[in-house]
């Protein structure tokens, strides 16, 4: 286990996944803050911290559930025609649906942020909260909604890293724990940074589109999909890590240049 966690590929996956989990948690932090701000001031920090801790437990439970389904790799039905063949398994179905969901969710989020950036926040603000328990319940509901793409991202980033599914599960749990811990410690600073640099969040959503396509091709590869005699191959995750790292480097350089220009004025 330790050898796997200290391997270069696992460390790269952990770093990338933790970053993406934080990016995905930005909206979650915003909505949690909105919900907590409806409480008396002396209860707001408590509601935020309790909500995020319970969100951590909720995500770990979801990770166990999704990992179990993804582990069902044995085909239960083979679809075959003269030009198309696929050995359908629960693993392939989960990855396919997950990939389609990530692409749909990411493109929808990008569109809404361009057209109606405060739409979801207004929906949350319209719901009255009368007690700490009501706030925490609303925070958990909000987190459950945002956990879906977060968990699918984790599955997509770690699937195939190790033949032992428990190793991948441990890696996902570590990334989720680290990301939630960072959110608890730096929630306001993270939110401020993203507000000042919204392109970072768009970049994160764009990464999800890449991961969505990777999940779809992974589903096709694991299902041994063959079209006109051509079998779908697996996409090496190293390409994805490089694309994400390169894009982040360019983005942070752009942010630095923009800040230097502002200081020079």
Automatic annotation (TrEMBL):
One of its GO terms (cellular component) is membrane. Pfam families: TerC. The chain crosses the membrane at residues 12-35, 47-70, 82-104, 135-157, 169-188, 200-219, 239-257. Keywords: Membrane, Transmembrane, Transmembrane helix. Coiled coil: none annotated. It is found in: Membrane. Belongs to the TerC family. This is Membrane protein. The lineage of its organism: Bacteria, Pseudomonadati, Bacteroidota, Flavobacteriia, Flavobacteriales.
């Amino acid at each position: 286990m330790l050898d796997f966690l200290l391997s270069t590929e696992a460390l790269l996956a952990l770093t990338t996944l933790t970053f993406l989990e934080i990016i995905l948690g930005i909206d979650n932090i915003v909505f949690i803050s909105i919900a907590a701000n409806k409480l008396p001031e002396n209860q707001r920090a408590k509601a935020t911290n309790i909500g995020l801790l319970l969100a951590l437990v909720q995500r770990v439970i979801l990770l166990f559930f999704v990992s179990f389904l993804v582990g069902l790799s044995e085909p239960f039905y083979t679809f075959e025609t003269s030009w198309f063949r696929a050995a359908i398994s629960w693993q392939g179905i989960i990855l396919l649906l997950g990939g389609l969901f990530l692409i749909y969710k990411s493109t929808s989020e990008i569109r809404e942020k361009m057209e109606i950036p405060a739409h979801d926040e207004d929906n949350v603000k319209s719901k009255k909260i009368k007690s700490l328990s009501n706030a925490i319940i609303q925070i958990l509901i909000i987190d459950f909604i945002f956990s879906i793409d977060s968990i699918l991202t984790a599955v997509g980033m770690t699937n195939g890293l190790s033949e032992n599914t428990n190793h991948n599960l441990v890696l996902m749990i570590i990334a989720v724990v680290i990301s939630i811990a960072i959110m608890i410690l730096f929630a306001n600073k993270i939110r401020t940074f993203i507000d000042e640099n919204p392109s970072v969040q768009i970049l994160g959503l764009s990464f999800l589109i890449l991961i969505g396509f990777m999940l779809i091709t992974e589903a096709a590869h694991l299902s041994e999909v063959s079209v006109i005699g051509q079998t779908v191959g697996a996409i090496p995750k190293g390409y994805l890590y490089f694309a994400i790292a390169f894009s982040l480097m360019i983005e942070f350089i752009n942010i630095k240049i923009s800040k230097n220009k502002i200081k020079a004025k």
